[in-house]
Design a protein that fits this description.
Blueprint (H helix, E strand, L loop, with lengths): L1 H7 L6 E6 L9 H9 L7 E7 L6 H5 L5 E7 L9 E5 L15 H12 L2 E7 L12 H21 L1
Helix pairs in contact: 2-5
């Protein structure tokens, strides 16, 4: 997956990362955890937003940063082991695989592309726990750190 993320960010000039999730549902908050890990590293090249359950609210503020690339991160049922993550381009999204809870993810991607002229990718992380809980599984904690580190390293070395 690192190769696919590196390839997606290859020609990036400015990146916006939007983390999604519900903090009250365990691993569903893994996207929020990724952006919180990235916050200390924000610059003109990297901006992060906590999208919670409505990333569409952040389209205007994100576009004001003039991103060339947008990554939306959320817990996604990938039918694999907890903590596994993968990049899902907007044209690869299956109906129901990736939702923003308010409007279809494909519409969010299309709006980013239209308003920001940005490339959009979705990064899904397989959850383990979705029950009401403020705790995340070790697998998703590890995945959040791995994804944040990967994004930071790619931006640091390729931009």
């Amino acid at each position: 997956m690192l190769n696919k993320l590196t390839s997606f960010l290859k020609d990036a000039k400015s990146v916006v990362v939007i983390g999604m999730g519900n903090e009250l549902r365990g691993d569903d908050a893994v996207g929020l955890q990724v952006v919180r890990l990235l916050k200390p590293y924000t610059t003109n090249l990297l901006q992060v937003f906590e999208g919670h359950m409505t990333p569409e609210v952040f389209i205007s503020p994100a576009c004001a940063r003039h991103p060339t690339h947008v990554i939306i991160i959320d817990a996604v049922e990938l039918h694999t082991k907890p903590g596994v993550w993968r990049i899902i381009s907007s044209d690869e999204i299956d109906e129901g695989l990736f939702t923003t809870h308010a409007i279809p993810a494909t519409e969010v991607a299309a709006e980013f592309q239209r308003r920001c002229n940005a490339k959009v990718a979705f990064l899904g992380i397989q959850p383990k726990l979705r029950d009401v809980s403020l705790s995340q599984s070790k697998e998703c904690q590890r995945a959040a750190k791995e994804v944040a580190d990967a994004i930071y390293r790619i931006i640091l070395t390729h931009m």
